[in-house]
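Hi P.,

Sorry for the delay on this. The queue was packed all week, but I finally got your sequence through. Input first:
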Amino acid sequence: MLTATDIPPGGEGQIKVTFDTSHKEGQQNKTIMVESNDPQNPRASLQVSALVEIVFGFEKYSLDLGKIRKGQPAARAATLFVKDPSIINTIEFTSSSPYIKANLLNIPVSSDSAGRLTVEVSGAPDIPAGRINAKITARADDSAASEATLQVVGTVIGKIDVSPDIVQFHVDTTRNESRPARQIVRVDGAVEEAQFEFLGVKDAQQLFAFSVDTLVAGRRYEISMTPQPAVLSARQNVSGTVIITTDDEEQPTISVTYSIVYGR
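Then the structure:
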């Protein structure tokens, strides 16, 4: 942030820099470009460096539980950094979802190993089918330690499995591509006895042309997604969700996230 945008000849100003250290560790180096109407030096670069030490925080911003069969146990490990070993026994975890929980797997017996803790994040057996999007928050009974958060994602599969559930279309602007390759999404019965009726697929933004092939009636389908010409001519990055509908009571709607990205 500049303290003044107009600086007279011989004058001076200050640039205040704020650096977000969330989910960062170790040596950090950044470059700030300053532009002005100085005819001799219209651009100047500032180098900003800092050594970030984690006092209380997760090693990574998010944890992917992957695809989970409904009713089957699922757990993944995350790493929590704690500088002060005296607060370890006061750490508590809360979750934004009643189906996702976290607990410490190891409590160090010596201060030498206190900096790196293993946290088990697990899903309840009765977690419903669909996307997982939860936030785990770790707090310690110490005013000096800020809270730490971990985003937990994944997909719980019921009778129906959709793959992939995230698709990306990349348009290479250097090659003047008129149309990126289509994407195929498969809708399958996830268990042997699964029978369902495919009812339709739609995109609220109407960006795609769809065609559906029935490979095995009641069991397996293929959806072809192709961006509409008007979307490509706009040459703007877009993202959204395609909704697949079925007659399955547990999974009447299944979402597929998409993005169209332009670049080299």
